[in-house]
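so im writing up the methods section and need the NUDIX hydrolase record in one place, dumping it here so i stop losing it
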Amino acid sequence: MDDGVTLVHAWEEPPARWDAAVFLAGPTPRAPGVASWRPDAHAELRARWRGGGRLVVFDPEHREGRYDDYDGQIEWEERCLHLADEVVFWVPRDLEAMPAFTTNVEWGMWHDSGRVVFGAPPEAPRNGYLLHYAEKSAVPTAPGLPETVAAALRRIGAGAPRAGGEREVPLLLWRDAAFQRWYAGQRGAGNELLGARVVFRFGVCWGLHVRVRVAAEGRVKDNEIVIGRPDISAVVLYRPGAVLDETQVVLVREFRSAGADGAVHELPGGSGPGGPREVAVAEVAEETGLALEPGRLREHRSRQVNATLSAHRAHLFSAEVTAGELERIRGSGPHGVAEAGERTHVVVAPFGRIRREGLVDAANLGMIAEALLEAR
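--- predicted struct ---
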């Protein structure tokens, strides 16, 4: 009877599709008579898998116990580690029979990937360093193999069906709204995702190296990097002048390490819970101290901020402010969410100065120009 679990051993080709995939990382016995822990892991996975689809289990032990192609083994393991939605580290370290030296290296490479769980018997020696970084990286830990497997399956849940190049997008990115918007656009254009590799993941931001078949051009593009993050709301607060260049615009100045002088001037804005208009109101209040009624915001078109690199969009709003409001917030601050490391100062500048002095980047300049031109 098919229990929905497929075992893939060392050097075997992964199947063409699945709903979830795990890699069984940890020490492998090399001495005769030393039993492997992985058959017990297979049994736990079979007993606990309730996803309803196909769970693939990558087992770095050869079905016939062969270990005569070291380079091939490394290449297979690296490929399947990147394919896995969760890497299950079970480290029953035995300094004589299973010293787990290679496991230490793998743990160092994957402990902060966001897709590992760690387990070890309490009596297993020399695991303190690994457990320290598990705690530091918020990795689920357990003292037993059943609990370790259960922790991995809890994070997987029902999984998600993926085939071909989609298999190379782990669940933690596959479930990300920014990724799904990007991928929907690719599929809408008739493009095919042939492969992917996670470049980085930091908080709500991620980077993906993708290989795509471009339908309209009949070719494969394999050097694309996509950066994703939640969409933002940006707000142009302005006080009309006699001419466009005399229109006063509210900016916020804050530290950004990529800024030419360690700081940037930009529109009040950011991301957070709620719809784009709710986010816009909240960001204005947080970054300028100005409380706006949602109805005062005029909505403009949303656009990608840097379409050659980043998949996220900016939802643009504007609001005309009174002379009293402008004076009240001019030069005010610091504002921002201190616990998030945010500190902003309000700067009011005429559009002509913003344009001539390069006070903002190209994306902010475009948003300001669009909002002001539509308001005239």
